[in-house]
Amino acid sequence: MEKKYYTPDITEFHVGFEYEIKDWWTMKGTDAGTGISDYSGFTERTLTKEMLWEWRTRTKEELIELQKTSEGCVGNPGVDYRHEWERITTGIKDGSIRVKCLDQEDIENAGFISTGLNGWENKIGNCLMVHPDGNIILLKSRTGTCLFDGEIKNKTELNIILKKVSII
User: Fold this and answer.
1) Residue 120 and residue 6: Cα distance in Å, rounded?
2) 9 and 79 housed in the same domain
3) What's the pLDDT at 64?
4) Helix%, strand%, coil% for the chain, nearest 5
């Protein structure tokens, strides 16, 4: 099954929000001598065209860490977090930030096993059903009580809902 993506809205960004970004300065480099990985730049490395345009998974926290350690990208590392939001808003506008839509893999990674026909069940009997047209989710307890009925666009949102209804 081919993965589907969407361009997020700035209001979706929060602590723990997972997205993908396409640009070279978000790459974590590893020093060959010390083996230490950080975001300190690529002055010693040759960037290939492929490296410049790879999609890399990030959370907002990783972008903050990148900013703290990236001289030259920020100008004032560790002092000013405005650059993080500038990069995100620019990425939303130019299409270099995307979010993977919720899919079967995400649901199964959350502890659910497929029961067929767009349905999943976890080990304690909670059921999750996805409307065939998209991301409308119905989550029921093992006793049949509706725990959630609404749209979940990505795995970050799924994990938040599962925590709120005390499933994980």
Assistant:
1) 24
2) yes
3) 61
4) 30, 25, 45
Residue 52 burial (CB count, 10 A): 12
User: 63: which strand partners?
Assistant: none
Which residue ranges of the chain lie beneath pLDDT 50?
Answer: 26, 39, 41-46, 71-80
Regarding whether 95 and 22 lie in a shared domain, the answer is yes
- For residue 42, give the nearest of 62, 80, 71 by alpha carbon: 71
What is the residue-wise DSSP string for 119-160? EEEETT--EEEE-TTSSEEEEE-TTS-EEEEEE--SHHHHHH
Structure tokens, 20: 């993908």
Are the CB atoms for 152 and 145 separated by under 8 Å?
A: no
> 81 with 127, same domain?
no
d(CA 105, CA 103): 5
Alpha carbon of 122 to those of 41, 57, 58, 112, 149: distances in Å?
Answer: 43, 27, 28, 4, 17
Tokens of 156: 């970050």
Q: What is the pTM of this model?
A: 0.71
